[in-house]
């Protein structure tokens, strides 16, 4: 592998064909609005073997962990849209909420005592969940790409 | 009119709540990121995801990029990483990877404003490399390339690899001289 990809990219770029589409540039600029100041980023973590199964029904499990907080997300892709059922462990307590975010749509859910939440009908693409707790810095999962 | 800011300044300003700095980063590096994603063989939808993914990774690391002056190379490398994950579909949902901290040296080809230099170097290559790389840059398929060069289609891939290797050597030499 001699990093041909970079040279091919550079050649195509220099040739001026296949320019970046306007909507891709616009999406990149809009992404700046998605930053969460002071947020701690939760990294992907191993799931128990029993849970790490991609079901035939298009259901995925993924786990993120940071600073004592675990996000377990069960993501279902169906009809071209994404449904997320999740749980924040340990439950962060009263006054907490999560933002289930895509670049185009954010759904906010107040967290009950169980720490469970659900959001449906999200557009496919990049997804992240941010947990806001009173008196703590927000914790955001890394962005994960979900497509049918 | 204000002097254009360098990548380090832009990154620091973007980390400090300056949308215009972020926009400038996009103007400067977005086209290259797109070219990287497309060069990895992705269609438009997947390439758009790879580019968007790299920008989202930058958001996650706005304050922790080790070499702010090399943010362009970081973005190109990260785009390539996302593109590879997307093209290996089984891994797109298992984003357990360590982000590249050191930019790939080859990304410098995309990092520098080197289009003119690159074309000059391509023009200096002997045939069939000169024509072949010009055709490849224009996204001409292997069959057409074989026809234009009068060679068997099976030899186009290996020849392309050899020509890119020559190009890389020449570019490296020029960078050493500079």
Automatic annotation (TrEMBL), chain A:
Protein name, entry field: Uncharacterized protein
From TrEMBL, chain B:
Domain RNA polymerase sigma-70 region: 28-83
Protein name stated in the entry: RNA polymerase sigma factor
Keyword DNA-binding applies: yes
Organism the protein comes from: Nonomuraea indica
Keyword Cell inner membrane: no
Any Pfam family the entry gives: Sigma70_r2
InterPro entries with a match to the protein in the record: RNA_pol_sigma-70-like, RNA_pol_sigma-70_dom, RNA_pol_sigma70_r2, RNA_pol_sigma_r2, RNA_pol_sigma_r3/r4-like, WH-like_DNA-bd_sf
Superkingdom field: Bacteria
Family: Belongs to the sigma-70 factor family. ECF subfamily.
The entry's keywords: DNA-binding, Sigma factor, Transcription, Transcription regulation
């Amino acid at each position: 592998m001699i990093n041909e990809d970079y040279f091919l990219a550079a050649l195509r770029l220099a040739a001026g064909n296949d320019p970046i589409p306007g909507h891709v540039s616009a999406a990149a600029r809009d992404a700046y609005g998605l930053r969460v100041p002071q947020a701690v980023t939760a990294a992907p973590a191993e799931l128990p073997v029993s849970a790490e199964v991609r079901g035939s029904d298009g259901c995925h499990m993924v786990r993120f962990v940071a600073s004592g907080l675990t996000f377990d997300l069960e993501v279902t892709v169906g009809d071209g849209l994404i449904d997320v059922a999740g749980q924040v462990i340990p439950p962060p307590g009263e006054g907490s909420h999560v933002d289930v975010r895509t670049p185009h749509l954010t759904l906010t859910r107040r967290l009950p005592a169980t720490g469970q939440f659900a959001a449906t009908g999200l557009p496919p693409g990049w997804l992240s969940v941010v947990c806001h707790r009173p008196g703590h810095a927000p914790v955001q999962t890394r962005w994960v790409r979900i497509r049918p | 009119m204000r002097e254009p800011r360098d990548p380090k300044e832009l990154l620091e300003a973007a980390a400090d709540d300056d949308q215009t700095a972020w926009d400038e980063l996009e103007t400067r590096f977005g086209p290259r990121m797109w070219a990287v994603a497309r060069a990895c063989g992705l269609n438009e939808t997947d390439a758009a995801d790879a580019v968007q993914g790299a920008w989202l990774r930058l958001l996650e690391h706005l304050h922790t990029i080790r070499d702010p002056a090399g943010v362009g190379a970081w973005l190109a490398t990260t785009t390539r990483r996302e593109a590879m994950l997307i093209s290996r579909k089984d891994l797109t949902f298992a984003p357990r990877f360590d982000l590249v901290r050191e930019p790939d040296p080859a990304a410098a080809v995309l990092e520098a404003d080197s289009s003119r230099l690159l074309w000059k170097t391509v023009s200096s290559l002997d045939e069939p490399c000169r024509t072949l790389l010009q055709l490849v840059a224009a996204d001409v398929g292997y069959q057409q390339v074989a026809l234009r060069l009068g060679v068997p289609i099976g030899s186009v891939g290996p020849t392309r690899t050899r020509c890119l290797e020559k190009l890389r050597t020449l570019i490296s030499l020029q960078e050493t001289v500079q």
